[in-house]
Structure formats: C-alpha cells, structure tokens
Design goal:
5-stranded parallel beta sheet; 47% helix; alpha/beta
Amino acid sequence: MGPEALRILIVDDHEDTAEMLSMLLTGKGHETQVALDGTAALEAASAFQPHIGLLDLSLPGMSGYELAQQLRAIPGLAGIRLVAVTGHGSDAHRARARAAGFNDHMLKPVNLEAVEAVLASVRQALGESI
C-alpha cells in the first residue's frame, strides 16, 4: 500500500456490486475490505481501521444509518469519512443520512469520478493532519 493509498470499507448486500467496486479501487492502489451486512462491517472495521466507508443504506438486519452511528462509536473511527451509496436520493433520505453521521451521499450506480473526488479530499485531509 503506497503513501497515497487509503483503506476503504465497502458495505453492500449485493456481493457483485461490492466486489466490482472493490476491484476498481484496489486497481487504483487502495486497500479494500468488503462486508455484506452491518454485523460483518462492524467486525471488520475495528481491525481494518478504514479511512472511508462506502455504505449501502438498505442492508439486511441493520440499516446503513444504524451502521454509520455504530462505526463512529468504534475507538479510532470517529473521524471516518462515511459515504452513503444508495438508490435513495430524496431530500428526506439525504437529511436522514446527514443526521446519522454520513459526510457524503452518492446514488447508484456509483460514478467512479465522484468516488475518486471523495478519495482525493480524504487524502488531502490526511496529508494536512500529518
């Protein structure tokens, strides 16, 4: 993992979607971890310590909203950049995502350029905090 690489947690119950996004980001030099539900994401996050979480809002067992709140409570992850990646784009969904602790909101299908813009801003913020 190079100095520009980020650790990215991808949470989506559609395995093909999650794996494809993981492959694209890994191909760009990032380290990714995929979880298919909130419980698996919480288990992975403590050890993985991601810089960014790309979270689907509609997950089995625990919503992405609940997951965001729980991720922020994990020691060391209060500052994680959380991005809602969803098919729900209404103002109400966006407001609920902000209230749950999301920093950004992207509609599916994900635009890779938009993801790369978020990654660039996280890299910049990390560089300034060193």
